[in-house]
């Protein structure tokens, strides 16, 4: 039902041009946001920047609760609220902006496959590391998640969130994995991406696509976040072309 | 004195006086017996105070006349029969004054007072008193037997309750006198018509053996939806309160700690409401003062209600405000069974944290079929895309003239539950700017709303009020949701 409403809203909104006052809502980057959320926010931001669209980032401590889907980030365009990466891509597409318009159908489905692999492996690995690794969860993720609330809400909400993440990862069999197994998964994913990227500027040639935005969001977050242990950083650093890719996107779109 | 002893032996029930019987016989004896010097009892007839036989004394002119009121007594034994979980000390405390009774009349009064108090304390469902002469034939020696019936350990019930334009079904499990000193514990589950539901546990303990002074504590979870403002909220909280009477009125002091999770109700909820979504923790201290001299809470004919409350939020938590609210209602009976009612209410709040404004769940709202008639429920004041945003101050005034139904159908019976009324309502809701009070007061006066109308009021068993009115809104401000014409309302709170 929600999907139908989303689609309908986006279609209705399509007749209007891209408004001037688009806001991207997310949590505070320095003090509050957790690693998986940060990756999602950065991916959406990178996508909007690659499309060359006007928008401003607005940080709110309650961005997660404000979001219609309960997840960050979300954009407010006029009276429309669109949350998460795929719906935002779809919504922006209805306004006539797309990064994958020039691609052939087979390329587009290949891109979709990579994106879904990325979400499945890196998305779950980030959740696993942030919330299930006891050291990182207790020292970094939980204090950050609860930082804007008074005692005892700060630990209560963080505990509740941890329980929800645990339930989600138990359902898709990630919770039972060991750190080594998760690192292995991340390695496989990065290997696939590295081979696809090869020596190209972007994954599908000289122009960025949705996949580039998503890869940048996840890898940049994983590479730059300092966490105790930080097991995945070393795994990703093995692939030099991916690191260079992140630097390239950063200087091309985030240089301001 | 003995308690907790199931002892019926030695008491001659022939001569026992049950309290109800006693009152009747006392009346009879007052008529039949003159007032000779008290205490004339023939020793040869130790059972001479056969009060139950007083009517027969009418026939016999030679009977010993005695004034039962001033009959000297010396209470020798008090037996309380039927105690299981009620603690001895609380019962002893209540019945000890009986030992000091000097006259029979005093003894009866003290016994009756003890019965009423123990029942009000919630110790017993029923208390029957029997007074008898002492079996060891001491002069003026008496024994008192309290036959008490305790409550069942666990009791339950299902009932419906009504809040403003919302009905709910309540399931209750209660444990009266749970610890043996009048404590009461109850568990409630409530489910309402507007997808509201909640659980609560409540514990109440009378202090100092006084049923009017008590400590209460509650823990609850409640989910409510507020469609007029486009949000839903889950409250989880604990509260402790102390209630005590004074010569002026009743006071209640409460501390409440509540975690509130506010979410937008739908996709089309206004962004001004959505912005306030999230978790908040309110820790507040509230004092409520009530004087209620009315004869009925729903359709009073005479009396005054005065209720004021002060709330301070900010003892920990992230909600900081000070709030003052009050209402006054005055009723007077007029000729021809008419009643005039005048009500005033007002409230003011102020955030104590300059960086935030008061949350929508703490604000005042105005309008509805039982308050500012002629407007939709919470339909007055600032709105954003159909969602009421509430205000930080309000006032409301109402005048009613009630009269019985025309031609008085069902007079003395169901017809007394109905009244017709003419009314006039006025009020306003808004935000006062404390830096520029005179201008904001002028704005407040200029943007007044008022309406008048007439209708029928139905009193539903002293718990709720049902109104069907024809209303004419006379002044409506931009953004208000007026509801001219017929309007139906049901609820407990009204003005």
Automatic annotation (TrEMBL), chain A:
Metaxin glutathione S-transferase domain location: 187-249
GO BP, sorted A to Z: mitochondrion organization
Superkingdom field: Eukaryota
One GO cellular component, as annotated: SAM complex
Domain (Thioredoxin-like fold) ranges: 39-135
Protein name: Metaxin-2
Organism from which the protein derives: Plakobranchus ocellatus
Automatic annotation (TrEMBL), chain B:
Membrane topology of the entry: Multi-pass membrane protein
GO cellular component, one term: mitochondrial outer membrane
Taxonomic superkingdom: Eukaryota
Pfam families recorded: Omp85
Cellular compartments annotated: Mitochondrion outer membrane
Keyword terms of this UniProt record: Membrane, Mitochondrion, Mitochondrion outer membrane, Transmembrane, Transmembrane beta strand
Annotated ranges, domain Bacterial surface antigen (D15): 177-494
GO BP annotation list: mitochondrial respiratory chain complex assembly; protein insertion into mitochondrial outer membrane
Family according to the record: Belongs to the SAM50/omp85 family.
Name of this protein: Sorting and assembly machinery component 50 homolog
Highest classification ranks of the organism: Eukaryota, Metazoa, Spiralia, Lophotrochozoa, Mollusca
């Amino acid at each position: 039902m929600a999907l139908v409403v989303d689609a309908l809203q986006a279609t209705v909104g399509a007749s209007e041009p891209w408004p001037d006052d688009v806001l991207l809502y997310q949590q505070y980057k320095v003090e509050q946001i957790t690693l998986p959320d940060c990756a999602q926010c950065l991916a959406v931001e990178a996508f909007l920047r690659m499309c060359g669209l006007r928008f401003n980032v607005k940080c709110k401590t309650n961005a997660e609760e404000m979001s219609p889907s309960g997840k960050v980030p979300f954009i407010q365009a006029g009276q429309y609220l669109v949350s998460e990466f795929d719906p935002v891509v779809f919504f922006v597409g209805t306004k006539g902006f797309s990064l994958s318009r020039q691609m052939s159908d087979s390329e587009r489905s290949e891109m979709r496959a990579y994106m879904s692999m990325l979400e499945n492996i890196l998305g779950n690995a980030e959740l696993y590391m942030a919330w299930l690794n006891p050291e990182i969860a207790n020292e970094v993720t939980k204090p950050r998640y609860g930082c804007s609330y008074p005692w005892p809400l700060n630990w209560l909400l963080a505990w509740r969130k941890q329980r929800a993440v645990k339930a989600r990862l138990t359902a898709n069999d990630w919770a039972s994995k060991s750190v080594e197994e998760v690192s292995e998964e991340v390695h496989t994913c990065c290997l696939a991406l590295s081979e696809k990227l090869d020596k190209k500027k972007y994954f599908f040639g000289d122009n960025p696509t949705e996949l580039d935005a998503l890869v940048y969001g996840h890898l940049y977050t994983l590479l730059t976040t300092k966490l105790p242990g930080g097991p995945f950083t070393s795994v990703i650093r093995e692939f030099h072309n991916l690191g260079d890719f992140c630097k390239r996107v950063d200087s091309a779109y985030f240089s301001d | 004195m003995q308690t907790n002893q199931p002892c019926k032996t030695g008491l001659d029930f022939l001569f026992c006086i049950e309290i109800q019987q006693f009152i009747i016989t006392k009346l009879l004896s007052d008529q039949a017996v003159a007032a000779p010097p008290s205490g004339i009892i023939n020793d040869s007839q130790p059972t001479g105070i056969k009060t139950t036989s007083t009517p027969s004394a009418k026939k016999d002119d030679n009977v010993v006349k005695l004034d039962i009121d001033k009959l000297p007594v010396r209470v020798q034994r008090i037996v309380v029969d039927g105690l299981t979980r009620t603690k001895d000390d609380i019962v002893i405390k209540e019945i000890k004054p009986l030992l000091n009774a000097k006259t029979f009349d005093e003894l009866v009064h003290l016994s009756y007072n003890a019965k009423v108090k123990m029942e009000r304390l919630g110790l017993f469902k029923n208390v029957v008193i029997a007074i008898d002469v002492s079996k060891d034939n001491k002069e003026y020696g008496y024994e008192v037997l309290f036959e008490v019936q305790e409550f069942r350990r666990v009791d339950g019930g299902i009932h419906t309750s009504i809040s403003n334009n919302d009905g709910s079904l309540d399931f209750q499990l209660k444990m009266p006198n749970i610890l043996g000193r009048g404590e009461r514990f109850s568990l409630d589950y409530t489910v309402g018509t507007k997808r509201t539901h909640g659980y609560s546990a409540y514990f109440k303990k009378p202090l100092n053996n006084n049923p009017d002074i008590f400590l209460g504590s509650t823990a609850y979870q409640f989910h409510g939806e507020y469609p007029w403002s486009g949000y839903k909220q889950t409250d989880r909280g604990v509260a402790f309160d102390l209630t005590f009477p004074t010569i002026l009125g009743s006071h209640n002091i409460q501390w409440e700690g509540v975690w509130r999770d506010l979410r937008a109700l739908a996709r089309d909820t206004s962004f001004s409401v959505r912005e306030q979504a999230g978790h908040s923790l309110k820790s507040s201290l509230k004092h409520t003062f009530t004087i209620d001299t009315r004869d009925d809470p729903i359709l009073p004919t005479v009396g005054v209600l005065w209720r004021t409350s002060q709330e301070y939020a900010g003892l920990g938590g992230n909600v900081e405000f000070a709030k003052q609210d009050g209402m006054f209602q005055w009723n007077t009976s007029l000729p021809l069974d008419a009643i005039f009612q005048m009500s005033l209410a007002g409230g003011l709040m102020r955030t104590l944290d300059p960086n935030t404004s008061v949350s929508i769940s703490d604000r005042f709202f105005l309008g509805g079929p039982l308050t500012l008639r002629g407007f939709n429920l919470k339909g007055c004041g600032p709105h954003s895309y159909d969602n009421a945003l509430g205000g930080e101050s309000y006032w409301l005034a109402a005048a009613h003239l009630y009269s019985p139904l025309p031609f008085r159908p069902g007079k003395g019976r169901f017809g007394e539950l109905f009244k017709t009324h003419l009314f006039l309502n006025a009020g306003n809701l808004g935000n006062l700017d404390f830096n520029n009070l005179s201008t904001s007061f002028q704005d407040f006066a200029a943007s007044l709303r008022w309406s008048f109308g007439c209708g029928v009021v139905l009193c539903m068993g002293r718990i709720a009020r049902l109104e069907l009115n024809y209303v004419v809104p006379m002044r409506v401000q931009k953004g208000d949701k007026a509801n001219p014409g017929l309007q139906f309302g049901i609820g407990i709170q009204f003005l």
